What we know:
Layout: H1 3-15, H2 18-25, H3 29-43, E1 48-51, E2 54-57, H4 59-86, E3 91-97, H5 101-113, E4 117-123, H6 126-134, E5 140-143, E6 152-167, E7 187-191, H7 196-207, E8 213-218, H8 221-229, E9 234-238, H9 239-242, E10 248-252, E11 259-267, H10 274-284
Parallel strand pairs: 3-4, 3-5, 7-8, 7-9
Antiparallel strand pairs: 1-2, 5-11, 6-9, 6-10, 6-11
Amino acid sequence: MHYVQLRAFHAVATYGGFSKAANQLCLTQPAISDQVRKLEEYFGVLLFHRHKRTVRPTELGEQLMTITRRMFAVESEAIQLLSESKMLRTGFLNIAADAPLHVIKMISEFRTEFPGIEISLKRGNSDTVLKQLHDYSADIGVVATRPIDDTVAIVPLRRDPIVCFVPNDHPWAQRSSIRAKDLTEQPLVLREKGSTTRKRVEEMFMGKNIKAKVVMIAEGREANREAVAAGIGIGIVSGPEFGHDSRLTALPISDTKMEMEEYLVYLKERKHLRLIDAFLKTVDEHINDPY
Length: 291
C-alpha cells in the first residue's frame, strides 16, 4: 500500500535531497515531495528536517531508513534471482522417470549447456510420475505407457526391442538369437507386477500360447540382473535396460516384434516455462539415440 511512498522516502534519505532522488527515480521533484508528504501525513510523523536547500532525516527517519535499506536490498536480490533464472543461469528442474537411464544422457548435455541449473531425478512407476506432474512436484516425466490425459503433452522418445539374457556359461550364450517358443518351461526371472516389461512379456506369452515357468520375481533391473547372473533363471528386459554386463549375454527374440516405448511428458499449461522449453530442445536432439 505504501511501497511508492517508501521508495520515495528511501531515495531522498539515500541521495540527500528531493531533486537528486527525483533524478535517480526518473520522476519530477514535486512528485517525490508529494509522496514523502503523503507518507508523513498518513502516519502523522516528521521524517525529514527541511531547511532551505538541505534535507536530513529525523531520528525516526534514520530508523526507517535502516528498515528501507534492508527492504530494497531484498528487492534487489529478488530481481537479480529472477533475472538469473530468466537467463537459465540458476534454477531447479525436477524430473520423474520410470527408467532414469533413458534421460541420463539428456541431463548430462543439458547440464553442460546450463551448469547453474540444479536437477532432481526421482524414480517411480507411470502412475506416480503422472501424479507428480499434476501436483507440480515434477516438471518433466518419462514413462513407458502413453498417458490418456488431455492435459499432458507427449513426446515419443524411444522404441526398443525386448531381449532375453542369460549368464555366459548358459548353453544359449553361444547362440545369436532365440525363438519365443524356446522360452516354454524355461526358468524365468521376471519383473514385478505393474512393470511395463512384464506386461509386454505376458502379452507375448499369451499370443504365442507359451507356458511360462516363473521361478523368481525381481523388482527393479538391478535385482533382475543379479538373479540371472546367479543362475536362477533367464531374464527378459528391453535392450537399453539390459545395457552391458560382462557376466551376461543378451539374445534377440527372432520371431516376435516385442518392443518397449518411452515417452517424455509434461503439463501443457507449463510449456511456456523457460526451463521446460530448454530441456525439450535438448531432448529433441536425442530422440532415438543409440545407447
